[in-house]
Amino acid sequence: MTPVRVMVVDDHPMWREGVARDLTEAGFLVVATSGEGRQAIRVAAAARPDVVVLDLQLPDISGVEVVRGLRAALPDVRVLMLSASGEQQSVLDAVKAGATGYLVKSTAPAEFLDAVRRTAAGDPVFTPGLAGLVLGEYRRLAAAGTGPGSGAGPADGAEPGAPRLTERETEVLRLVAKGMSYKQIAQRLGLSHRTVQNHVQNTLGKLQLHNRVELTRYAIERGLDD
After folding, report:
1. What is the b/e burial string over 87-124, where b = at least 16 CB atoms within 10 angstroms of the residue's CB?
2. Residues 6+ apart with CB under 8 A from 190
3. Distances 58 to 36, 66, 83, 103 between C-alpha atoms, Å
4. Domains plus CATH for the chain?
5. What confidence tens digit (pLDDT) does each residue in 182-205 have?
6. Looking at the predicted structure, is the pLDDT value of residue 161 above 60?
7. SS (H, E, C) the chain
């Protein structure tokens, strides 16, 4: 299989080099590293990583700004925040900007490497406790009617011109909205991990969304997490 292409962005050289080394030893292809936000955006556009492991605190611009820049340059890139801060607002700001997941730096190495693999596969990965925070914020925004696409109607395409999802795609979407991983969804529905991924990718294409974070927000706004 083609190795996952990863870029590491952190302003501490020893930490950055250590993470890059761990990734390489685990079979990932580290295509670039950077210690500054603006440079990271420029380099990523050329290196085209699948996953960017990104620190929140950088010397020139914030990690949140980098996420926005990365997503503008590479709409399909997946960003895994790796930060010393687990402060709630930092997590929410990063996810709203387009980050796929968020880990604190105290995460064990094996858990981190697994998180990079899952991020590459499209799974949102969070340090325990943070996933519930993000889901709760999406529900709050949906209830307030302030989330993107609020009031746009049901996900099954009942309103005129809306994309129509199959029964299975809608079923998978409901479980995504509950914060379940691909593995958990596959076990619940008796499907293979790859089949669940395919359903999610088809749904993303139909709804013109970019990742599971946006898909989760979409589903919650339509009450599919009940």
Report:
1. eeebbbbbbbbbbbbbbbbebeeeebbebbebbbbbbb
2. none
3. 6, 9, 10, 16
4. 5-130 (3.40.50.2300), 141-221 (1.10.10.10)
5. 888 888 888 888 888 888 888 888
6. no
7. CCCCEEEEECCCHHHHHHHHHHHHHCCCEEEEEECCHHHHHHHHHHHCCCEEEECCCCCCCCHHHHHHHHHHHCCCCEEEEEECCCCHHHHHHHHHHCCCEEEECCCCHHHHHHHHHHHHCCCCCECCCHHHHHHHHHHHHHHHCCCCCCCCCCCCCCCCCCCCCCHHHHHHHHHHHCCCCHHHHHHHHCCCHHHHHHHHHHHHHHHCCCCHHHHHHHHHHCCCCC
The C-alpha atoms of residue 78 and residue 211 are separated, in whole angstroms, by 8
1 contact partners, CB below 8 Å, separation of at least 6: none
Tokens 């981190």 locate to: 112
Residue 22, φ and ψ in degrees, nearest 5: -60, -40
pLDDT tens across 47-102, in order?
999 999 999 889 999 999 999 999 899 988 999 998 887 677 778 888 888 888 88
What pTM was estimated for this model as a whole?
0.68
The residues, ordered by sequence, that sit 6+ positions from 87 with a Cβ below 8 Å of its Cβ are none
Contacting residues for 189 by C-beta, under 8 A, at least 6 apart: 171, 172, 175, 196
